[in-house]
Design brief:
The complex is a heterodimer of chains A (about 140) and B (about 130). Chain A has about 140 residues and is an alpha+beta fold. Chain A has two helices and seven strands; from the N terminus they run H-E-E-E-H-E-E-E-E. Chain A has one domain (about 10-139): STM4215-like. In chain A, about 30% of the residues are buried. Chain B has one domain (about 10-125). In chain B, a hairpin with a 4-residue loop joins strand 1 (about 60-65) and strand 2 (about 70-75). The chains are: A alpha+beta (about 140), B mainly alpha (about 130). The interface of A and B includes residues 31, 71, 73, 75 and 115 of A.
Chain lengths: ~140, ~130
C-alpha cells in the first residue's frame, strides 16, 4: 500500500508562517511554545478546512473553496510590547495576497481580534493579544 | 453639449422602495432569527463532548436587537460560571498553552451563503 501525500493543506497552513518567519524580527512558533522561550514571541495555530456550500463552489457540487485560519497569539512582557508584536504581525499579513500554485488566492483578512489576556499560568506575566487571520482560496 | 432630461415615474419607484423597506422588517427578523439559530446549533455541536468543558454548549445563545434601521444578532457563549461560558474565548481562539477549538467562526462562515440566499429571496418577495 502506498500513500500519496497531498501537500496542498501544508502549503496553505505554511503561508502565513512563512511570511512571519521570513521577517526574522520575532520568534515564531507553531502549535506550542518550547520551554525557555522568551518574550516577545508569536504563537500560531493554523487550521485548514474545505467546507461545503461556499459561494465559490462549482455548480457540480464539488468543493473548491479552502479556508485557512491562523490563530495568532502575540506575547509580550507588557501591553505595549504585545501590541507592538500584534502590529508587526498585522503589517505582515493583512491584505496580502499570497501565491499558492493551482489556487486562486484572496487577500488575507483579519476575522476576529478578541480582547487581550493576562496569562500568569507559569508564574510569569505574559500579555497575550490574539487575532484570527483568514485566507480563502479557490481552485 | 447640453440638454434637458425628464425622468418620470421616479416618485413611484421611491414609494415602492419605501414600502419594501417598511415591509421588510418582519421577514428580515425571521431571516436573522433563522440564521442565528443555525449558527447557535452548529456552534453547540462543535463544542459538544469537550471533556474539560462539558456544559459549555448550554451557554451558547443569541440575542436579536432592532434599532429601526436594521436587525442584528449577537451569538455566543454567555459568561456564566456554571455553564462554563467564561471558557468561551480561550476555546474559540486558543491561548498560549492550549490550541483553539473554533466553533463560532466556522459556524458563521457556514451560515453566510445560506443567509445571503435568504436575504436575496426576501428582497425578491418585497419588490413588485
Amino acid at each position: 500500500m502506498s500513500i500519496t501525500l497531498d501537500l496542498l493543506d501544508e502549503l496553505h497552513a505554511r503561508t502565513a508562517l512563512d511570511i512571519l518567519e521570513a521577517d526574522g524580527l520575532i520568534p515564531v512558533y507553531e502549535g506550542g511554545v518550547p520551554d525557555g522561550a522568551t518574550r516577545p514571541y508569536v504563537l500560531v495555530y493554523p487550521t485548514v478546512a474545505w467546507p461545503n456550500g461556499r459561494l465559490g463552489d462549482s455548480l457540480d457540487g464539488k468543493t473548491r473553496t479552502c479556508e485557512t485560519r491562523w490563530f495568532v497569539h502575540c506575547a509580550g512582557e507588557t501591553d505595549q510590547s504585545a501590541r507592538s508584536v500584534a502590529g508587526r504581525v498585522r503589517q505582515l499579513l493583512l491584505n496580502v495576497r499570497p501565491t499558492i500554485t493551482g489556487r486562486s488566492c484572496g487577500l488575507i483578512k483579519q476575522e476576529a481580534s478578541p480582547p487581550p489576556v493576562r496569562d500568569e499560568t507559569t508564574g510569569v506575566l505574559v500579555l497575550d493579544i490574539a487575532a484570527v487571520y483568514l485566507l480563502v482560496t479557490e481552485g | 453639449m447640453s440638454g434637458d432630461v425628464t425622468i418620470t415615474g421616479l416618485n413611484e419607484v421611491v414609494a415602492e422602495l419605501d414600502r419594501a423597506v417598511l415591509g421588510a422588517a418582519p421577514g428580515a427578523a425571521k431571516v436573522v432569527s433563522k440564521g442565528s439559530l443555525n449558527i447557535k446549533n452548529a456552534w453547540k455541536k462543535s463544542w459538544s463532548g469537550i471533556a474539560h468543558a462539558p456544559r459549555i454548549p448550554t451557554s451558547i445563545s443569541y440575542d436579536m436587537t432592532s434599532n429601526g434601521f436594521g436587525i442584528s444578532s449577537e451569538i455566543g457563549p454567555e459568561d456564566d460560571a456554571y455553564r462554563q461560558g467564561f471558557l468561551g474565548a480561550v476555546l474559540e481562539f486558543g491561548g498560549l498553552h492550549s490550541p483553539p477549538v473554533p466553533g463560532g467562526l466556522p459556524a458563521l462562515a457556514d451560515e453566510e451563503p445560506k443567509f445571503l440566499v435568504a436575504v436575496e429571496a426576501l428582497s425578491k418577495d418585497l419588490l413588485p
